[in-house]
Each structure stands twice: as C-alpha cells, then as structure tokens.
Inverse folding.
C-alpha cells in the first residue's frame, strides 16, 4: 500500500486563458458534492503561487511570465522531490500544465539515477520553446524543457538575453540535463500541434497514440503496449491534461480540441496504468471551472483521481 501525498499547485501564469488556478478548488467542491471525504484522507501541501504576475505587464513576449515560472519550478520540484524521498507517492493537482516540467524535475532530483518514462495524455504536444511558440504561453513548453531542446532549427523568434537566461535555467533545474529522453515519452490523444512540434516528434521518432487507436484497440491493449514500450524505464510519470477529453463532455478547460477521449476511456486507461509498479507520480492539470457548466470537468477529474488512488491503495 502506498502513502499518498497531494501536492496542490494552483498556478495559472503559464496559461493563456484565465481561471485554471480555480481548478483544484473546483475538484474539491466536486468531492463534497459526491459526499466524499477524499481530501481529508491524505496529507497535502499547497504550493504558493506567483499569480499576482497576471496583473503586471509581460516582460518576455515569447515566454510570458517566465521569471514567475522559474520560481514555481523551484517550489514544485522541491515539493515533489521531498515527497518521494519521504516515501510518499505524489499526486499533483495543478492549474496550468506549465509546471509539469517541475514535477518531472522533482522526480529526477529524488531519483537521479532513474530512467524516467512519461505518459503524456494531452491534446497538445507541449513541445514548443520560446524560439517557436505561437502564443508565448509556457504551458505549451513543459516537455521541451524536460527533454532540454531549444528547437532552434525551427526558430521563428529572436530571444532576448534575459529570456534566454531563464529558459536555460528551467532546462537545467536540479542540475540534471536533460530530465528525460524523447524516446521515453508516449503522447496519448495528441491531435493539436504545430509544424515546429511535429518536427521534433518526427526527428526523435516519438511515440504517439491517437484517440482513434485508443478506441479501436481498447484501453487494455493500449495500456499494455505503452508499458511494454517503456519497459527500459525504471520509473514512469503520468500527466493527464483534461483537454485530452472531448469538448462534447465538458468545456471546462482553456484549450478544448475536438475528437478527444471519452470520460470512460480516460478513466479506464489511467486506471490500467496505475496498476503498474513503475508509476511513481500522477498529475491532473488544466481544469478551468470558469469555462464550464455545473462544474462538470472537475467532477470528471475527481472520478479519475478517486479511482486512481483506490488502485494505488490496493496495490
């Protein structure tokens, strides 16, 4: 049985749409609505945010609020690292997805010798860099940070010295570089990405599993093939961005993309992954209740969270 610790990161400075910082409270409200005492069962740590930066002018147009992101990376990576070192299984609930790179850094800081695999369940590849970003939002960059790429081959922007310094700091945080190898990432339900990201996916021959494949092969087969694909890895982190779900289910996320997973598919898939002993951390990200009707996305996220934790407690 695993000791679970909840790490709450209500930060949204990496997103382009406001409201993701309220996602964690929305999931807690969903738990209350289901008469669940889930959130009083486990120790939790709430990471202070830099959300006040949302009210200040943007300094780096191609890496918005990157200074605040650096601070968040320091806090989140430390919290994740400490949890693992104290034999907790960290479950990270985050506002926007930018800090997933800090979660990955924290795992590597706690287990520097581990070969870390990443299961990235997301409509987006999050492989942009300040050199290629169409938006400047850092929630489109955590995997690029983690594999340590600038992707200057596809550069469309010139970066000022200041931005470059912070960007390099993010890639090297914890003095481990790179944190993960591109071949140790599996992208599930990916369907919205730019040519610059496609370049990296093809260059590194990264594994992509589409929504259609999940549907045609079934969650059981997909889970088995993913675990087999990552068999060289000693540890595996699962990052679940709720925009991997189809917007017909819920609009409660900042970047909805059609042709996503159904609630049951995501839940079954994550549950099957959670049965594997190599899974060392699970993250849920990008619930935005301000865009939703009746807190639906938070309810879905809570179901997935609860089922995943039940599996961990039984294992």
């Amino acid at each position: 049985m695993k000791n679970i610790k909840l790490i709450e990161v209500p930060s949204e400075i990496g997103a382009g749409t406001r409201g993701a910082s309220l996602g964690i409270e929305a999931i807690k409200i969903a738990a209350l609505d289901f008469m669940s005492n889930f959130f009083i069962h486990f120790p939790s740590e709430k990471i202070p945010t830099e959300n006040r930066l949302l009210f200040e002018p943007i300094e780096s147009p191609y890496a918005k609020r990157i200074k605040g992101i650096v601070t968040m990376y320091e806090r989140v990576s430390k919290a994740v690292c400490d949890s693992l070192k104290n034999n907790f299984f960290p479950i990270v609930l985050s506002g926007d997805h930018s800090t997933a790179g800090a979660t990955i850094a924290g795992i590597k800081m706690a287990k520097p010798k581990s070969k870390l695999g990443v299961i990235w369940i997301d409509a987006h590849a999050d492989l942009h860099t300040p050199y290629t970003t169409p938006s400047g939002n850092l929630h489109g960059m955590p995997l690029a940070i983690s594999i340590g790429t600038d992707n200057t081959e596809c550069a469309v922007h010139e970066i000022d010295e200041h931005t470059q310094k912070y960007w390099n700091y993010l890639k090297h945080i914890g003095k481990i570089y790179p944190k993960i190898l591109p071949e140790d990432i599996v992208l599930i339900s990916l369907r919205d990405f730019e040519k610059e990201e496609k370049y990296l996916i093809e260059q590194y021959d990264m594994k992509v599993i589409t929504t259609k494949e999940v549907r045609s092969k079934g969650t059981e087969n997909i889970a088995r093939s993913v675990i087999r694909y990552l068999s060289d890895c000693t540890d595996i982190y699962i990052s679940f961005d709720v925009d991997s779900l189809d917007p017909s289910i819920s609009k409660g996320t900042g970047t909805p993309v059609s042709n996503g997973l159904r609630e049951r598919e995501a839940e079954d898939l994550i549950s099957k992954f959670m049965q594997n002993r190599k899974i060392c951390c699970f993250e849920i990200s990008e619930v935005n209740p301000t865009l939703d009707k009746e807190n639906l996305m938070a309810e879905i996220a809570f179901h997935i969270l609860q089922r995943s934790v039940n599996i961990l407690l039984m294992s």
